[in-house]
Design goal:
The chain has 246 residues and is an alpha+beta fold. 32% of the residues lie in helices and 12% in strands. Strand 4 and strand 5 form a beta hairpin. 26% of the residues are buried. This is HNH nuclease domain-containing protein.
Length: 246
């Protein structure tokens, strides 16, 4: 038998807890389901002869097998529909020095774990977390709009064009990458289109947003840490035009 332990950062910890909730929730007092299909699925989990720990462990291994067998040239959507980032609105400065001054810090729903402004802005790009923005008076100002996310056809095109993370010397394939808005979606009015998208692996994506939040670079600019003197390690080539109909 293999035994072990691990520690996860708040963002990945919330994702992992949500995964476990989906596979063992009916065993641990999770939410009751009202739709017939969900009720039947929950009952199957309750009636499963395996122990709760065994169900959790084997479900995790199955997920790892699926991920390990995935095509490394495919960029996958990071859709996490039940994990929400609760964000408090920050007072808007007269002349903001960075994109992230439009958002205050927040926290991950159901936990006391703080979410930094850089984490929140990265989530707006492509992680699939749903950001819920509250005003200082407690009113809900905005619940994440799905048009901020790149579509699957756009992800395919980005994977073919960029070939993986565009950070200097990073060799992560598209399957390890997220789509970043070159112009910040929230603050700069960045568009979710191919011209405004670039692939970055999760660590470099967060690092880029951290550099934006600390003023190392301006929103929509290029990081000196991530680039040679002239820009990204390899510039995205233009998407070839669609051939004419015959």
């Amino acid at each position: 038998m293999l035994h072990g332990s691990f520690e996860l950062d708040p963002e990945n910890g919330a994702y992992f807890k949500d995964f476990l909730q989906q596979v063992i929730g009916p065993r641990t007092g999770g939410p009751r389901f009202v739709e017939k299909g969900e009720k039947e699925r929950a009952q199957r989990i309750i009636d499963d002869p395996r122990s709760t720990d065994q169900i959790a462990a084997e479900s995790l291994i199955e997920a790892i097998k699926v991920a390990a067998g995935a095509d490394p040239g495919t960029i996958f959507g990071r859709i996490r529909p039940s994990v929400k980032l609760v964000v408090m609105e920050a007072p808007a400065p007269a002349t903001p020095s960075s994109a992230l001054e439009f958002l205050g810090d927040g926290f991950i729903e159901g936990t006391s774990n703080a979410a930094t402004a850089a984490t929140i802005d990265r989530a707006l790009c492509d992680t699939g977390f749903t950001p819920v923005l509250f005003g200082r008076d407690g009113s809900v100002l905005d619940v994440g709009r799905e048009q901020r996310l790149f579509t699957q056809p756009q992800r395919v095109a980005l994977a073919l064009r960029d070939g993986g993370c565009m950070w200097k010397d990073c060799l992560k394939p598209p399957s390890f990458s997220e789509a970043h808005h070159l112009h910040q979606w929230k603050a700069d009015g960045g568009l979710t289109n191919l011209e405004d998208g670039i692939l970055l692996c999760s660590p470099h994506h967060l690092r880029l947003h951290n550099e934006i939040s600390t003023g190392s670079i301006q929103a929509g600019g290029r990081s000196s840490a991530s680039a040679k003197t002239s820009g990204w390690s390899h510039r995205p080539p233009p998407i070839p035009p669609k051939p004419p109909s015959t």
